[in-house]
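Sample pair:
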Amino acid sequence: QVQLVESGGGSAQAGGSLRLSCAISKNTDGTYFMGWFRQAAGKEREGVAAIDSDGRTSYLDSVKGRFTISQDSAKNTLFLQMDNLKPEDTAMYYCAADFAPPLWMSRLTAIQALSSGLFAFWGQGTQVTVSS
């Protein structure tokens, strides 16, 4: 069973920064995708950022230039650096992972798959609240 545990959420003022971390229990050899999605109260899930086993990254348009996804050298910790935060970034943020390669890979982007809830594993989430 793969476990993902997020940390680093909290409150920030608009224009501020937060850094989320996600510890992943699985060995990451082979093809994988990792990412972050968010869900605000009353709104649909949004895929925010993704990274694959080749190091390619992708982002939701509204966070491009403000958020950065990365991994540590051991590839078992995922990060999301969030700068220039906006009130509309307020949401529960979840890290997610998929391996093997995943079945959705031939028809969806990683951001689409995150938005659709198709990643196989995700954590319990961490709340991010941005005030104006």
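The chain has one helix and eleven strands.
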